[in-house]
Automatic annotation (TrEMBL):
Residues the entry annotates as binding ATP: 7-14
Xref: HAMAP family: Thymidylate_kinase
Thymidylate kinase-like domain sequence ranges: 5-186
Enzyme Commission designation: 2.7.4.9
GO biological process, alphabetically ordered: dTDP biosynthetic process; dTTP biosynthetic process; dUDP biosynthetic process
Catalytic activity reported: dTMP + ATP = dTDP + ADP
Listed name of the protein: Probable thymidylate kinase
GO function terms (MF aspect): ATP binding; dTMP kinase activity
InterPro entries: P-loop_NTPase, Thymidylate_kin-like_dom, Thymidylate_kin_CS, Thymidylate_kinase
One Pfam family in the UniProt entry: Thymidylate_kin
Originating organism: Vulcanisaeta distributa (strain DSM 14429 / JCM 11212 / NBRC 100878 / IC-017)
Length: 199
């Protein structure tokens, strides 16, 4: 099964996925975790670029095209081979990130969806959610902010799009502004229930 964990920056995706992997492996599942931007050359270009001053002046379509190109490479070069080998694959970020972030930059959802015609949707998409002021304080306390993390009003728009798409597509939303163990338990339960439905 292919699972995407989505949410705005600073909501705790990396930590939750790390703990989730251990919990699933202890339950006997073969788990492969990955993230976007990927480790492909396109992904590395994106990572380098996003930390450079002035990258936010680029046209939003450039971000959308780069992220989607990286996603196609990521899926066919990394995700699909692991799925074919029988792994439960969990990715930190996937198509909902582009729909939310580049949507908040003003790009039309229809065009952003069309860019994704060459990659399949995950079997399960889970949205981790927390108030924007909480995640900004977390981000500022631990590292240099990237271009998408510095603007409170922008992150509010991103969060609104993610929650709206969760409602439209029946994605489960997990309150990430709680004890970390409780968040991991909730996400674990959602994945286990989805796996049972697949079987």
């Amino acid at each position: 099964m292919f699972v995407a964990i989505e949410g705005i920056d600073g909501v705790g995706k990396s930590t939750v996925i790390s703990m989730l992997r251990r919990k699933l492996e202890e339950s006997g599942y073969r788990v492969y975790t990955t993230a976007e931007p990927s480790q492909s050359p396109i992904g590395r270009l994106i990572r380098d670029w996003l930390l450079k001053p002035g990258s936010n002046v680029a046209h939003p379509s450039i971000f959308a095209l780069l992220f989607t190109a990286d996603r196609v490479q990521h899926y066919y070069g990394e995700v699909k081979p692991m799925l074919d080998s029988g792994y439960l694959v969990i990715t930190e970020r996937y198509m909902e990130s582009t729909l939310a972030y580049q949507g908040a930059m003003g790009l039309q959802q229809e065009w952003l969806m069309e860019l994704h015609r060459f990659v399949p949707k995950p079997d399960l998409t889970i949205i981790l959610d927390a108030p924007v002021d909480i995640v900004i304080s977390r981000l500022r306390s631990r590292r240099e902010l990237e271009v998408f993390e510095v603007n409170r009003e922008f992150l509010i728009k991103v969060r609104e799009i993610l929650l709206r798409r969760a409602l439209m597509n029946n994605y489960p939303v997990v309150n990430a502004n709680r004890d970390l163990g409780a968040v991991v338990d909730d996400v674990y339960g959602l994945i286990i229930n989805a796996l049972r439905r697949v079987v």
